[in-house]
Amino acid sequence: MTLKNLQSISNRFLSVTIVSSIRILLSFDFLSSNPAFSQIVPDNTLAVPSQVTIDGSLHTIEGGTEAGSNLFHSFQDFSVPTGSEAFFNNEPLKTSSLA
């Protein structure tokens, strides 16, 4: 092999290595830029749908439909990440009154 052939092979190898490295870095950036979110999504099929608020790792679920002495919630998705909590607040929703 001549020196030119070795340089040509070396340049091609370097180009492939750079392109592969960029693809790997982009794929890791893609994965890290998509944080995991919980999936607590009311399905809005009840007369009074549930309301979900998130404060850090605490997911507070309020509202729901009363039937007799029972309170019902209905969800399209319900998944709580490890280390998080779902709290069902059964207190009646407070409405503000005008004086």
Please explain how this structure is put together:
The chain is elongated, with a radius of gyration of 27 Å. It has 99 residues and is an alpha+beta fold. It has a three-stranded mixed β-sheet with strand order 2-3-7, with no helix packed on it. The chain is built from one helix and seven strands; from the N terminus they run αβββββββ.
Mean pLDDT: 74
Low-confidence stretches: 14-20, 28-35
Helix content: 25-40%
Total helices: the number is 1
What is the succession of H and E elements? HEEEEEEE
Per DSSP, what share of the residues sits in E-state strands of 2 or more residues?
Answer: 25-35%
Oligomeric state of the chains in view: single chain
- Round the Cα radius of gyration to an integer and report it: 27 Å
Strand order of the largest sheet: 2-3-7
Please write out the topology.
Layout (H helix, E strand, L loop, with lengths): L2 H30 L6 E4 L7 E6 L2 E6 L1 E3 L2 E3 L2 E5 L5 E4 L11
Parallel strand pairs: 3-7
Antiparallel strand pairs: 1-6, 2-3, 4-5
Put the structure in a nutshell.
This protein is α+β, with helices and mostly antiparallel strands and 99 residues long. Helices cover 30% and strands 31% of the residues. The strands form three sheets. The chain has a three-stranded mixed sheet with strand order 2-3-7, with no helix packed on it. The protein has a two-stranded antiparallel sheet with strand order 1-6. The chain has a two-stranded antiparallel ribbon with strand order 4-5.
